[in-house]
Amino acid sequence: MQEQYSIHTNLGTSPHATGVTGEAVIPRNWLEQWPVARRSLISNLFHYAVRDGAITPALVVHAVQVAIVRRLRYATPPRNASDETLHAVWQTLQTAPHEAYEYTQNVLDWEHLPRAERERQKQERGRHFQQQYMAQLPVTPQ
C-alpha cells in the first residue's frame, strides 16, 4: 500500500517570527541526526531548492518537502534505506519545520557566496584533514 503525502506548511513562519528559540546550534547540526551515508542526499535537496529559486528558509523547506513527496510517490516496496530516510526527513519537516530553518539559512548563505569564496572555505575546512593525513606519513629526506 502506497502512503499518501500532503504538504501543509505556513510559508510565512520563521523561528524568529514565532518566538522559537534554542541553544546555539551549529547550522549543520540539524543534518547530523540523519545517517552519514544519507546526508549528501538530504543536503542536495536543500541546495537544489535554493538553486531553483527558493529565497527564504520556509520556502526552501517547502520545496524540499515537495521534492521528497515526488520521490516517494514513485518508490515501490520494498523500500530501500534512502526511501526510509527521506520518509523520516519528510515527517520531521512536517512536524517541526522550524528546526531545519537554521540549517536552511546556512544553505541560503552558502549558495549566495561568490564561487571563489566557496572554494576558499572548502579548502580551509579540508586543511585540518590534509594536515592530519600528512602527519601520519613518514618524514621524507631532503
Describe the 3D structure.
The chain has 142 residues and is mostly helical. It has a domain at 27-116. The protein has five helices and no strands. It has helices at 36-51, 57-73, 81-95, 101-111, 115-136. Helix 1 packs across helix 2 (57-73) and helix 1 crosses helix 4. The model is unreliable at 1-25 (pLDDT under 50).
Task: Compile the SSE list and pairings.
Blueprint lengths: L35 H16 L5 H17 L7 H15 L5 H11 L3 H22 L6
Helix pairs in contact: 1-2, 1-4, 2-3, 2-4
Helix content range of the residues, please?
Answer: 55-70%
The helix/strand series, from N terminus to C terminus, equals HHHHH
Structural category is mainly alpha
Compute the separation of the termini in Å.
68 Å
Name the overall outline: globular
Major sheet summary line: none
**E-strand count:** 0
Number of helices: 5
Radius of gyration, in angstroms, nearest whole number: 18 Å
- The chain-level mean pLDDT equals 80
Q: Unreliable runs, pLDDT <50, ≥5 residues? A: 1-25
User: Beta fraction of the residues?
Assistant: under 5%
Brief write-up:
The chain is an all-alpha fold and 142 residues long. It is 57% helix and 0% strand. It has helices spanning 36-51, 57-73, 81-95, 101-111, 115-136.
What keywords describe this structure?
142 residues, globular, 5 helices
